[in-house]
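Kindly inspect both lines:
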Amino acid sequence: MVLSERLDNAIQKLYVAFHNDTLIPECSKQCAVGNICDNTDSWKHLTDIHGSSQLNYVGLVHQRLGRKFYGYSPIELLKIETIFLKGCGFSIPYNHKTKKPIKTTSKDILFDGLCAVISYLCELDDVDNVMDYSKLFEFENTSKNKV
């Protein structure tokens, strides 16, 4: 399967962050989008609320100008973050009063968020979900001794 450069880069960055314990949902530099954007938080200026998929004025200007950040449009970045937070069990938009998991950096919780994000990234690039392992178990039984 051939992946686009932006998808390949995003998956690599998220994979490294997950395994290096630098994938942190509550930190705008170390969340899913923060990692995709090379651990910068400049993306957070595209919206007024972390976890919102609503562009603010700055975000709208960049979106209308067709700007891309690490290969993704402003609205795509906000959607990625929203999916990640929801996948990790956060209520969105995120603030200090909203529901969140007890252990926000638990590998199980982060893996759920990571799977949701990668599924969306694959959908954006119109490729099969690279996290879908069900095809590994598909086979055709050609044996003559069928039970």
Notes: The chain has one domain: 5-136. The chain has a mean pLDDT of 90. Residues 51 and 93 are 4 Å apart (CA to CA). DSSP finds five helices and no strands in the chain.
